[in-house]
């Protein structure tokens, strides 16, 4: 019996997280109860607490894992030219965002629902990611390849622009991913005065 339960745990835990991510993204964190998550997963509400202490911890874990995945996936090449690095960032950010739309939505829209300690942790992770882009921009200015008045503000504006693609993009729509990346790369070049 314990073996069956143990073998289901590796299925149930991720299912709870995936279901919570989807429900939070569709209905909002505040509107979704632990009972709704349990019902969607097909378990009793009490069973959720074997996987997470509470709804706040579940949200924190979802946002934390998204930011960790994002940071782990991004690879800069400081030896490359700043514009090549920026293009790589644009391509990476759009692809990652389109591959994880619910996680991206949560990381921007539900950050406000985190308790202060959780908020501080997630914003610190976001700060690390933003700093990676800001370093590219500062290097671009230093090399004379970019004309930017405020690298920090430009960083925030670029990330918001690139992330915004998740709000309207639909697979099979008028523009495919490659065309979207080309257009956004042109917008990003213009934004940095390249």
Automatic annotation (TrEMBL):
PROSITE patterns: HTH_TETR_2
Keywords: DNA-binding, Transcription, Transcription regulation
Domain of life (superkingdom): Bacteria
Start-end of DNA-binding region: 33-52
InterPro entries: Homeodomain-like_sf (IPR009057), HTH-type_TetR-like_transc_reg (IPR050109), HTH_TetR (IPR001647), KstR2_TetR_C (IPR041490), Tet_transcr_reg_TetR-rel_C_sf (IPR036271)
GO molecular function: DNA-binding transcription factor activity; transcription cis-regulatory region binding
Pfam entry (one): TetR_C_24
Gene3D superfamilies the UniProt entry points to: Tetracycline Repressor, domain 2
Chain ranges of the HTH tetR-type domain: 10-70
PANTHER family the UniProt entry points to: HTH-TYPE TRANSCRIPTIONAL REGULATOR BETI, HTH-TYPE TRANSCRIPTIONAL REGULATOR RUTR
Name of the protein: TetR/AcrR family transcriptional regulator
Species per Swiss-Prot/TrEMBL record: Paracoccus aestuarii
